[in-house]
Amino acid sequence: MLIRILSCMALLLCAAPLSAHEAADIAGGFSSGFMHPILGWDHVAAMVAVGLWGAILKNPALWILPITFPLVMAVGGALGLAGIPLAGVEVGIAASALVLGVAVLTALRPALWLAAIVVGCFAIFHGHAHGSELPQAANPLAYSLGFVIATGLLHLAGIAFGLLTKWQLGQALVRAGGAIIAIAGAWFLIQAW
Amino acid sequence: MRSFLLLVGLSLPQIAWSHSPIAGIGQFYGGLLHPLMVPAHALALTVFALLIGQSGIRAMRLGYPPFMLCLAVGLVLAGFDISLGLNSEQGLLVIALLCAALVALQWRPPLSLFAVLGTGLGVLIGADSGVQGLSRQETFAALLGCWLGATIALIVVAGVVELLQRPWQRIGVRVIGSWGVASSVLVLALTTLRT
């Protein structure tokens, strides 16, 4: 009996390190937020495609699209937090990879406002998905900073790759990247449907 | 069962050093790093610094003095355990949202706004940086460290941003501003919904 009581006491003591609003929470919140877009291939494909498309559309789309995306994504996240349902979030995310991939593949050049609206519409779906995870985060602010920064860095990766369009071979490579993203988007869409 | 207990017992000493992530650095350095370790403080300070740096020297002249003075006042109040009854995190996020939006849109606000923002930010960060269970000397060291840490962070970040004059560098600052807007909106929405 004594052994059992001692076991229980020892196990209860072991639980102590989990309590904290220390920097461990902040680091945990930031890293889980940072990894959220990176570990989801549908998010990665769409974010990189935004950067690639921006590079194809050139200035000022090159920077307006990556600024538009997080601003509108925050609205989607707030909708998710408020529990306002959004029909077909996963379908919307998958469709974003498909549509943006096709836009890169075909080097589509719509008016800047139209490109911003397309990117903004898809950002709402991505934001909704991230936002619904926020209340469970160890530190919501660190989590949100993590996933916003990761999203921005994925855009940057797309822009960096998209700058290859300055060369003839690079243009083919970028469009091939768009094709891969579009195929992946179609696959995500089939799975989400 | 006994060997299990022995294993558990051996694992217990780890608890002792999990108390603080930077154990043993002392109260002054703990205070110095405090504004950078609390996400709401770090975010609000960073975007305010981005805004001041983006707006130039005149904004620095008007923004720094009220911030430094009000930060000191807030820290003294926190040191004496006097509560202002404010929700510091929400207040800081509102200021962060405003500053980040101005940075992302690259709008130049009236110069008097820098004094207002500096005052609000200083008071809120100071009042939210209280320490408990320390001697008077340790409390003074922690609060002095916090004042220096926040002031240095603000001046250094704003100074670096002011030096960035190339178009792509200015765009980079705006992109970081947009990240600040997104984070602030999300966490403000969360805290508002919770309350």
UniProtKB/TrEMBL annotation, chain A:
Cell division keyword on record: no
Keywords noted in UniProt: Membrane, Signal, Transmembrane, Transmembrane helix
Signal peptide segment: 1-20
Source species taxonomy: Bacteria, Pseudomonadati, Pseudomonadota, Gammaproteobacteria, Cellvibrionales
Species whose genome carries this gene: Sediminihaliea albiluteola
Protein name in the entry: HupE/UreJ family protein
Positions of transmembrane segments: 34-55, 62-81, 87-105, 112-129, 141-165, 172-190
Keyword Secreted: no
TrEMBL record, chain B:
Pfam families tied to this protein: HupE_UreJ
Keywords from the UniProt entry: Membrane, Transmembrane, Transmembrane helix
Chain segments annotated as transmembrane: 28-52, 64-84, 114-134, 140-164, 171-193
InterPro entries recorded: HupE_UreJ
Keyword Transmembrane helix: yes
Name this polypeptide is given: HupE/UreJ family protein
Species this chain originates from: Sediminihaliea albiluteola
Lineage, opening ranks: Bacteria, Pseudomonadati, Pseudomonadota, Gammaproteobacteria, Cellvibrionales
